[in-house]
Structure formats: C-alpha cells, structure tokens
Design brief:
It is built from 16 helices and 9 strands.
Amino acid sequence: MALNIIDLIKGQLGAALVSQTASQLGESESGISKAISGLLPVVIGGLANNSDNPTVLDTVANSSSNGILGSLSSVTSGNSFISGLLTSIFGDKLSGIINSVATYAGISNNSSSSLLNMVIGATVGSIGKYASENNLDRNGIASLLNDQKGIISTLLPAGLSLASLNVGDWAKGYGFEGNENPATKPVIDAPPRVEVTRSTAETGTFPDRTTSSEGGSIWKWLLPVILLLVASYFLWQQCRKSETTTTTSVEGDSLKTKTDTITVNSTATTTKVDEDIDLNGTALKGYRNGMEDQMISFLKSGEYTNAKDDAALKNRWFDFDHVNFKMGSANQLEAGSESQLQNLVAILKAFPDAKIKIGGYTDKTGNEANNLKLSAERANFIKDWLSKQGVASQVIAADGYGSEFAKVDAKASDAERAVDRKMSVRFTK
C-alpha cells in the first residue's frame, strides 16, 4: 500500500498552527481549517501531476535543507522559494484556485493565498524530510508523488469540487466525483467506487468527504450495485468474527488514529477512552489495562520487589499509550505526550524504591544506523525529561533498539508499521 502523504503532513497543520494563523490573518479558526481542507487535495494533486517535473523534484529534494518546516507561520507572508514552486505547478490557474478556496471557506483572497503558501510549504517540507531520512533520490520522490494519484480522491471535502477549482485536465485521472465527463468516460469497464469515510480532527482540518450527487442517469444502475457491494462487505465482516478497536484522539497540534485488530469469537467495535486509574488513592487518567494500569498492578503484586536481579525483569516492557515524537524529531513531543510522562513520574514517586529503564524503537524502514541513533536519542530525551521532574535516581538507563524488535514488514503500509514505532519502559534493579 502506498504511503499517504497526509501521514507526513498531519503533525504540521494542527490546531496550534490553525489558531496562530487565524489570529495572524484576522480570520476565524473554522474558516482557516476549512480552507486548509480544500487546499490539501489541490496541492497534493498538483505535486502528483508534476511527478516527472525536474524543477519540482529538485525543489522537494532540496526542501529539507532550507528549514521551511520550522517557519511555516512566516511562510504565509510570502517566500520566493514557495512562489516559484506554485507557479511551476499551477501556472495561470493559481489565481482561480485562490479565489475558489476563499469563496468556499468564507475568507479573503489574501488569506487564501497565504494559506496556499503555508500548505505547500508543509507538504513539500514534509516530503523532503521523509525523502532525506529514507535516502530517496529523485526517482524515489517521483514514485512517491505519483502514488498519490490513487489516494487523494479521499481528501476533497464536501462542497468543493476540482471542477469548481478549475485546475484543468490533470484532475480527470484522480477519481474525484463530479470531475469526469459522463459522455466520454467508459464507465462500463470501471469498477464501482465505494466511498471511504475518514476520521476527522475536531478542528476540521481533515473533514470527511461526502458522496457527490452528480452523475445524472448513471446512478439509476450504479447505486444498486454499490448498495449490493456494501451489503456484501458487512456480511463478510460478520463472518470474519473479529473485533476492531479504534482510538482517534485530537491532542493539540496532532491527529492520531490507532487501529488494532484482535481475533475473538464475536464481532464488536469499541473505542478506548481514558479512565481513572487508582494510584494509592490518587486518580491518574489512562486506558483501562493501559501502561499506568499495568505498571501499578505489577508493582503492587510484589513481582518487582521479589525479582532477584535485572535478568528477571528485562523481558517485561510497558508500552507508552500516548507518548509520541513529531516525525523525524528526537526532542519534540507531540501535544498530549507529557500528560502520560507526568503519570509515570507520579507512579515513581509513589514507589520510590522502583527503578526504570527507557527503550526506543523504530519500524523496519530506512537506514538502520539512523534508526538506532534516532531511537537512542528519543529514549535519552525521555530519560532527561523525567530526571528534571525529580526522579533522576529512579531513571537509570535509556537505550535505542532501532528496528531490532520490529515485527511488521517494511513493505507494509505506514499504518501497519506504526505498531513498531514506540517508546517503552521497564523496571530494572
């Protein structure tokens, strides 16, 4: 499955940046979020359409060295690097795109133009950073961009069509409803398309897209086929007898979705929510049977006290549920991460004889030497953070293991590989 560029961008265009940009441009946060949701598919589609453009590929490849991700808020005021790229991609259609998105989101043309600069800066910067970290050359970047043609059809929000954006013929091959010409499209050979519903951040930055009503008489025969496929899908799901647990949380400037599938004897869908976890009369917010719950039970059971040496403890690791680093960073936590670290501090202070070690892990992609370095730096960052909270004597070690213990194949999807990218903690003597 192709990497979705949205997975690279989601940490860049979060609630904090939306709020800051709204204040900077004098617009409402809802208007800014709405505009970003309209600009994302246009920018990604434009880059995908230019996957063989040497100028665009050079710009993406060089973006990791110009620090654009660290100054997204200033990009809104204009940047020659960005302006040149926009012209290469959209040419004379640029003003039409800016005007259409402004009308759709209810913001000024100037604000729409500024947001387009910011969105393409975040997109190109994220792709360039990913390419640098994974040793992608121009051909690799071109392949990554080209892959998006099969993905971006899920991004266009309701109420906005590529036809209304007037982006030209490049949109026709991307499967957006309302952009095909029914008179010329050979629908008889095309499989019916089932709309995919996506989770949405509360800020509205990535809103769900509803099915278009356009298409005329084609729906007289296509709709029954789609309904039949949907009914078959749910019947198949019932027969699988699996339970899917999905946690979607909005934490500050990040959107995170985690999906685990566990084989059981019945079908059910549940959503994990934070509950009160008792710590000697103090309530900590965490998942039932999550990291805090497991650690407290372990300590109260006497297993730690009775362990003869470190060898008896080294294979019992507790994975953080909420601690995540921003993509490619070893010293920037995603919003919401510190709350679980504070819970760990509280546990250590409640059990002053307990000592711990921090472990960092990556998936199987990328250069292993870089993976080891990144995972070690992240583990040591958490160790230092905890030490500053007054528990330095209890946090005695931190190691990075890279992809040594990763289980998911490097060719799997990014969502599937996410389980191997984690931070963990274990008790030690």
